[in-house]
Amino acid sequence: MSQDIYLTGITTTGTPHIGNYVGAIRPAIEASKDASRKNYFFLANFHALAKAEDPDRINQSTLEISAAWMALGLDTDNAVFYRQSDIPEIPQLTWILTSMTAKGLMNRAHSYKAMVQANEESGSKDPDKGINMALYSYPILMAADILMFKSTKVPVGRDQKQHVEMTRDIAQRFNHHFGKLFTIPEAVISDDTAVLQGLDGRKMSKSYDNTIPLFADEKRLRKLIMKIKTNSLEPGEPKETADSTLFQIYKAFATASETAAIEKRYADGIAWGEMKQELFEYINEHIKPARAQYQRLMDDPAIVEQELLKGAEKAREISVPFLNEIRNAVGIRRLG
Ligand code: TRP
């Protein structure tokens, strides 16, 4: 059995929050230290374009996400860490794949269908209102990302699973017509990594505006934690951990024995204000060293830029020759 190749992309549309950290960044950084694994992690800034974000916001997000991953100890010697737009072979492969992907396949994408449905429900005359072609063919760009590096495993959130399945379809169809060039990847959905709740108790997400930025300064971190929704139980009254956002976040950071100790304090009736203080102190201590490093990188983006360019160079050792093979297979060839 040959070595598994893991690849995952992060769309550069937001500021990293503690939900991203627990759900995606922390496991990826752990994996980057595992010498038996080949890892590709990249900033999906072409995907961000599809979402029609503000240009400065896309750029800022690219810096923030890169600096966050680096500050948290990503091992860039063992993992290839790059920016999608630094790999010109990716948009080329996207076009090649676009040419052999059935429109009907894209019609079935959940993300596209959800947008059409929202338009219909809002009574709009145009079901495709606000949907650009990049959003529509988003899964093909993602297929190019994945197939370019012969990935076997693609760690993604549940909402992205269908896109990986589409990648498999696209790759199989290509292989059938042009020779077996592509590796068929598999989505890795980890059910054991926590999906954190946000300030209002719903899933922590940029779209709900209920996040706690991973590197908020101490004052802001404290303020946000104080805003987390609780119930009206008084100090001294026993409290449930099961529906407590404070507990859930604490648990995602703390060790098993620390978590057990907090469970006991819930049973003993810890006051919500006290629990908020505990949570603040815990996260603050945990994040402090990385926050200082993050700040240094944010103040000197050239260091981040250099790291990404180094990553792109490594990535292109694979993508340049592989794209040549692919071009050759589809009839884009030198004439003599
Ligand atoms: N679409 C993914 C998301 O929004 C990000 C992404 C882009 C990605 N290309 C990828 C993930 C390739 C895995 C593999 O989360």
**Overall average pLDDT:** 95
Biggest β-sheet: count, sense, barrel?
Answer: 3 strands, parallel
Q: How would you spell out the order of helices and strands? A: EHEHHEHHHHHEHEHHHHH
Radius of gyration: 22 Å
Share of residues in helices? 55-70%
Supply the helix-strand structural class. Answer: mainly alpha
Number-wise, the strands total: 5
Biggest sheet, strands in spatial order? 1-2-3
Note down, in words, how this protein is organized.
- There is one protein chain.
- The protein is mainly alpha-helical and 336 residues long.
- The chain contains 14 helices and five strands.
- It has helices at residues 18-32, 45-50, 55-71, 89-98, 103-107, 110-121, 133-136, 138-148, 161-178, 218-226, 245-253, 256-267, 272-299, 301-330; strands at residues 5-11, 38-44, 79-83, 153-155, 186-188.
- The strands form two sheets. The chain has a three-stranded parallel β-sheet with strand order 1-2-3. Strands 4-5 form a two-stranded parallel ribbon.
- β4, α9 (161-178) and β5 form a beta-alpha-beta unit.
- The longest helix has 30 residues, at 301-330.
- It is globular and about 80 Å long.
- The chain binds tryptophan.
